[in-house]
Amino acid sequence: MLKKILKSYDYSLVVVYILLCLFGLVMIYSASMVVAVQKYGYSSDFFYMKQLKSFIFSLIAFIITAFFPYKIYKSNKFLGTIMLISVVALIGIRLFGHNSNNAQSWFKIGTSMIQPSEFVKLSVIIYLSAVYAKKQSYIDQFNKGVIPPLLFLIFVCFLIAIEPDFGTASIIFAIGLTILLCSGMKMKTMMKLLGLGLIIVLLLSPVFLLKKDEIFTKNKIARITGYMDPFKNHTDEGFQLYNSYLALGSGGVKGLGLGQSVQKLGYLPEPHTDFIMAIIAEELGIFGVGFVIIGLSYLVLRGIYIGVKCRDPFGSLLSIGISSMIGIQSFINLGGVSGLIPITGVPLPLISYGGSSLLLLSASLGVLVNVSMFVKYEDKYKKKEETTTFVNSKFNNRGFKVH
């Protein structure tokens, strides 16, 4: 049995995950070495060593979730526990959180910082996937099948938005909507939900008008103006995007060479986090950018494929939720670096510096690998057993038996 299970693992996912993480480690060292010394007074490998430790813990989490049967996650006891932990952690941030970059989103433990909202992403995916999978028989009953899980999603997004962290809140809400769209409900039910959403927006519009100065702070407005015309505001609001453009343009096709970036020498703020793709483009050119985009695209598309192939509604929604998380986060990061959308401060999955993000994504991909294993195992061995049973039943009366 164990041999059959091991043969059923999707090793292509494992290989792509490890390659992206190792590539991220190399680029974090290259992008952060100058910042670590000049800005923070650390050793040149400070951020690299911290990320390496995070990768080791993340790899352990990946292995555990890859071997842990995903179907256990849909038990009521497990769902209740992760919901409670998520809410308590997000409320605790408001009371005991550490403020950094105008957001109170982290718990500071020594020199390390943990961002609970990252782990809430996976909690929301598991919760919504399990609930909508259980509600398949009455998924189109609006009050009973649709609204209750959405209320939890909205509440969690609200707690994250008031940190304030609108980027993460938007990602979680988008992931929730993706799971909702793939849950199997009819178009009529979705139109009702859309109508309800429009009504809520209209009812809340006076609140947005009254609180516009608190919601649209100077910092948030600066991101919009910097996005609209980074060249005009290249010394102020558009500073990050302007220097990102310089890095992207300087790299060309071949790049300047690993470690040869100019923009990381104090021009591009925090080059090892949100804007690491700009450094990759500058140093490794189109080949480095292509490697990352192809790798992330493979994880997303493979996850969607697994979700489509999975016969279990919970496993299917779980796979699609994890894939959408990687895809949405990648789009927002790359869109911000390239000027396609305003900068939101979202890290690039598996590549950017950040222990919480790497741990969450590793655990999530481990779950995806486990779902894939069950799908391949059922397709390969269950069909074989069904065929053998069918043939035996046909020829049993003639004295034959197929093994």
Key features of this structure:
three-stranded antiparallel β-sheet, mainly alpha, 403 residues, 3 strands
What is the rounded distance between the termini?
17 Å
What class do helices, strands and sheet pairing give? mainly alpha
Q: For the residues shown, what is the average pLDDT?
A: 85
Measured as a percent range, the helix fraction is over 70%
Sheet with the most strands, sense and barrel status: 3 strands, antiparallel
Rg value: 23 Å
Whole-number count of domains: 1
The number of helices is 14
Output the helix-strand order.
HHHHEEEHHHHHHHHHH
As a percent range, the share of strand residues is: under 5%
Shape: globular
Strand tally is: 3
In the predicted model, the low-confidence regions spanning at least 5 consecutive residues are: none
Widest beta sheet: strand line-up: 1-2-3
Can you tell me about this structure?
By secondary structure, the chain is mainly α. It has one domain (2-185, 217-386). Helices cover 71% and strands 3% of the residues. The chain has 14 helices and 3 strands. Strands 1-2-3 form a 3-stranded antiparallel β-sheet, covered by helices on one side. Strand 2 (103-109) and strand 3 (112-114) form a beta hairpin. The longest helix has 41 residues, at 355-395. The radius of gyration is 23 Å and the shape is globular. 41% of the residues are buried.
